[in-house]
Amino acid sequence: MWVDLFPVGPELPPPVDITPRQPHKYFLRVVVYNVFDAPLQETSVVSREKMSDVYVKGWLQGTNYVQKTDIHYRCMDGDVNFNWRLLFPVEVIEAEQVMLVEYKEHPWSLTSTQLRRPPHLTLQLWDNDLISRDDYLSETTLDLCRLPKPAKNRDDVGPSQVPQMMTETDANSVAVTFLDDDTQSVNLFEAKRVYGYFPFIRVEEGVTYIAGKIEMELEVVSEEEAKLRPAGQGRDDPNMNPKLPEPDRPATSFLWITSPWKSFKHILWGRYKWYCITLVILFLLFPFLFLFFYSLPSATVDYMLGIY
Predict the structure, then answer these.
(1) Buried b (16+ CB within 10 A) or exposed e, 240-275
(2) pLDDT in tens, 7-21
């Protein structure tokens, strides 16, 4: 509550305006360009090479609105190409650095409950599986009001960009680094647009390490700006602000079950070409060899008897 105490007098000062602050509506645009050094989760049955079918999944914490990129199939070198735009509506109170999330506590609730929480964006890296469940690879969670400054190139991505980067120092202790200095962070709602490289992290056995580096652009636009500068989800129309071309993926990036010929051409032929040629030659020679050995005994007998 708010309490004012004044001495008795003829006039009182004007009351303080305590009207609740109203949130501003924004659209968060996340353009995922590339991911580098992605973990390779699986081993190809045919070529015995390490590979992953990689996609990025993202959402604002506290909401159920989850979006995904398309899938980069058969990534064998850890470099993944997307050129994909994720769009998230968000209501933010800048003065309090919180976003408003509305939800119903029960399906039969008549009114919605409002929750104020920090605007945290979570992006996860996953390996797509056709039959079994997808495999988790790594993730990053970014506070949009305290973004770590992005690296200018992927080689500069490091632990200083992770709010709680843990590295094993000895058997019983862990060193933790926090982004407490405002000079190391950026408020996206003030900067409006941020571009650069951020780390994906993974925790195993209590140790946090970098497992991938994402090249992306983060931008917040108001409702009015969104109408003046429209942008479609993914690479859909209107594909602008910025215009996203088709990703430059290798010829081996495809779902094998949908393209048997491409699977043979790029997977089997490149690795087992001479085996395939030898098999075809043997297949063509087999009828002649069969006929030769089949007729050889009778031809030998006829020759010995002087029939010919």
Answers:
(1) ebeebeebebeebbbebeeeeeebeebbeeeeeeee
(2) 888 888 888 888 888
